[in-house]
Amino acid sequence: DGGITQSPKYLFRKEGQNVTLSCEQNLNHDAMYWYRQDPGQGLRLIYYSQIVNDFQKGDIAEGYSVSREKKESFPLTVTSAQKNPTAFYLCASSGDLRVKNIQYFGAGTRLSVL
Amino acid sequence: AQTVTQSQPEMSVQEAETVTLSCTYDTSESNYYLFWYKQPPSRQMILVIRQEAYKQQNATENRFSVNFQKAAKSFSLKISDSQLGDTAMYFCAFMRRYQETSGSRLTFGEGTQLTVNP
Known about the structure:
Chain A is mainly beta. Chain A has no helices and 11 strands.
């Protein structure tokens, strides 16, 4: 089945530690996105990538980093510089943006601070 | 910058009845897309319905339909014959027309928690 897989489902971070959230898609989509969701708020864009080896900052990129070495993968690293990392993180992807601009989402990763 | 506002943090409806969720947005763009996503307790984001701004006809998907008022910048979602499985957080979202330099970013509202009561 085609889809977007996020792992792990739950993640705990110690103070000063970097952690990486995985996002893999087998939909052959060019574009991928990372969103953060806090309680009572909508989703906010962290980073996005339209093609391999290229990515752009979203609205809340500080304290996060990404890479896009393969079309299928778009991992997100939450660095120690992110002082309030506790949130629900969602990865999304979309196909030909000129024709079909629907974003499809993974099941998410809940990150908590120990 | 675009903004999306959902003024109803919570709503409830009886099973089999109809409910309307409100959404307004602000943009200077003329070509754009509007979406409603639902997020059930599983937290999985699911696309409900999509509207293209250049189309005057309101989109429909089975029990879900929208009332798109471009001049008023309003995009409400109507759910007919509500079912228990419709209980979820509903998000309105805006996307400008694709551009090479900025891609297609979604801007979300803060969501409306809908509860369908038996």
